[in-house]
Amino acid sequence: MGTITEAEVPESADLPSASRHSDTQPQPAEAPFSTLSTRRHQMFPELSDDEIARLARFGEQQHWAAGELLFRTGETGPGMFVLLSGSVKVFQRDGLGRERLIVEHGRGHFLAEVGQLSGGPALVDGLALEPVDAILIPPEQLRAAIVAEAELGERIVRALILRRVSLIEKGAGGPILVGKHNDPALVSLQGFLSRNGHPYSVLDERDESMLCVVERFAARCEDLPLVICPDGTVLRHPSAPELATCLGILPELDGKRVYDVCVVGAGPAGLATAVYAASEGLSVIVLDSRAPGGQAGASSRIENYLGFPTGISGQALAGRAFVQAQKFGAHVAIPVTVRKLFCDEEPRRLETCSGDVRAHTVVIASGAVYRKPAIDGIDRYTGRGIYYWASPVEAKLCKHENVVLVGGGNSAGQAIVYLSTHARQIDVLIRKTGFESTMSRYLIDRIASLANVRVHGRSEIGGLGEDGSGLASVRLKTPCPEGIDHFDSRHLFLFTGADPNTGWLRACGVKLDPHGFVLTGDNESCSLATSVEGVYAIGDARAGSTKRVAAAVGEGAAVVAQIHQRLAALRPVMVVAGVHA
Asked: Where do the segments described as Disordered lie (predicted)?
């Protein structure tokens, strides 16, 4: 599981919105993956006999009879199939019993998508149309093949990612979400699936067939949103972990295994640590409560990150890092919330919502959580008119409507630019007179050129107005220089800073500063080390860190060198104790 984009693909594109409206009528087969039809040669490459022979050493030849399923939607995928003879039909099947042909494969083709790098659940069915002989390469060996066969591995990874992108565009193999389009619970589930690169489709009150589905499952208002999983299981008003469990993407944690490194947080810093540590042969597990990318993953476009002259979305950048981490064998467990770190145990033990995790070293990369201003009624409208990030899900809700946005940092600037292509009017409130001291120049210039954006300096929110439909207006503490004392809007975006996500450390011996950031640098040779031996802090959660993606990635790389020092010192003790990662 993870945010998937056309990573490692030269003509890269951002992750498409996974939200798709659909109906309950049988869907005719159509040109498969039509939106990526010009890239079919990359999505479905044909292997030569020599390439098949090179891959054969990583798998085992097996046989399937005509009519037998090689893999089934929702069940754990066994890996990648390289066809030697026969043909296989790959098709989508959803929880309402609808089917759609995706593609048919013959000799020289391989069957898999990017989820099989980690042995995730299959998103489609694969049916043998005739007797089939194929080489089955399990996930661990598939990763080994991709690393060992660099050029061939690049082609395989590109194809696997493009296939997931296309499945997302179709909503293939994912759940059907049923509910009101502006229901905070529905919006939250959409955001969870989108940021984790999992396909889904939506039926809301604007779809004529929604009522039929609601009646079919006897759903009451309190049951919405209703989720129909691919296997037909129906969830009523589920949480994200409940949905993840139904989809088979909630990871199982082995409390007996001891990792070399446990990384808490899958933002840029945490994913960088995973990539560098795993590529150097360390056993790594990454834990995150929501999705890859952290706060950066919600950025619509980052234009000052080195190596991307045209910019890249935070979600796309996180997707590339996520695939890289999986390629080298890192175990990424999402959604898993860490509740407590036991610093007095060796190896260190972390208590999570899904069980315990043990590791010789722990990297705190848990970032920050969005700060909520002290405004009456703010919790009542969170996710229902008040938002803390601007993804395609939120942009769709405020299309052609007036928006109020609060904040003057780069995250706010990126959101303003992105939302300006959807909203009718954006009124931006900032405490200072301008953006110059808080925002990058390229964003300031971009915002100045937007005709539907008005910036109001020395302005603060004083309260919220509501009507029978919900949030209706945003009131100011004092009238702004233009004499305006309120804005009529049902959509308020807040980018008012963030607090360190370190509450789970309070019962541990890790020292924090008065604001909750982790203190590091007591050990001169290990600048990222905390007050507890073997525990490190990087990224936004660290006191004194530079709040930039590039800086976070740099710290993720640097901490691995310091981890090697710690593991080298521990190794004699580990050998004597018989502890193995």
From this structure: 1-39
The owner of tokens 């630019």 is: 417
- φ/ψ of residue 458, rounded to 5: 55, 45
- The two three-digit tokens of residue 543, written as one number: 């006191």
Of the residues 170, 192, 223, which one is the last residue of a structural domain? 170
Q: Contact, 203 vs 22, CB < 8 A?
A: yes
Q: Which residue is it, tokens 């950031």? A: 517
pLDDT for position 97: 83
Sign of CA dihedral 262, 265, 269, 274: positive
Task: Measure the CA–CA gap between 318 and 556, rounded to whole angstroms.
Answer: 14
Q: Is the pLDDT of residue 155 over 50?
A: yes
Residue 482 sits in a domain whose CATH number is 3.50.50.60
pLDDT digits (tens, 9 = 90+) for 338-366: 999 999 999 999 999 999 999 999 999 99
Q: What mean pLDDT is reported for the chain?
A: 89
Q: How far apart are the first and last CA of the chain?
A: 23
User: Is residue 143 included in any domain, yes or no?
Assistant: yes
Helix residue ranges per DSSP H, 362-430: 378-381, 392-397, 410-419
The answer to whether residues 318 and 383 belong to one domain is no
Cα gap 580→347, rounded to integer Å: 11
Report the alpha-carbon distance of residue 170 to residue 172 in Å, rounded. Answer: 5
Decide which of 274 and 546 is more confident. Answer: 274
Pairing of strands 348-352, 338-342: antiparallel
Residue whose entry in the numeric block shows the structure tokens 């009456």: 376
As a whole number of angstroms, the distance between CA 23 and CA 208 comes to 8
Instruction: Print the domain residue range for 465.
Output: 378-496
Name the amino acid, one letter, at 178.
V
Here the tokens at position 554 are 């740099």
Across the strands, what pairs with 386?
382, 492
Q: Which residues contact 286 (CB under 8 A, 6 or more apart)?
A: 262, 263, 265, 266, 270, 271, 273, 274, 325, 330, 331, 332, 333
Out of 138, 170, 202, a domain closes at 170
Q: How far apart are CA 256 and CA 558, in angstroms?
A: 28
Q: Judge if 152 and 203 occupy the same domain.
A: no
Q: What is the Cα–Cα distance from 228 to 213, expressed in whole angstroms?
A: 10
- What predicted TM-score, i.e. pTM, was given to this entire model? 0.88
Cβ-count burial 47-70 (b if 16+ within 10 Å, e if not):
beeebbeebeebbeeeebeeeeeb
- Residues 270 and 556: beta-carbon distance below 8 Å: yes
CA distance 96 to 27: 12
pLDDT at 83 over 60: yes
DSSP per-residue letters across 403-420: EEEE--SHHHHHHHHHHT
How far apart are the C-alpha atoms of 282 and 285, rounded to whole Å? 10
- Rounded Cα gap, residues 320 and 232, in angstroms: 32
- Joined tokens for residue 499: 């607090």
Between CA 447 and CA 425 the distance in angstroms is 13
pLDDT band at 37 (very low <50, low <70, confident <90, very high): low
Cα dist from 180 to 177, 206, 346, whole Å: 10, 9, 49
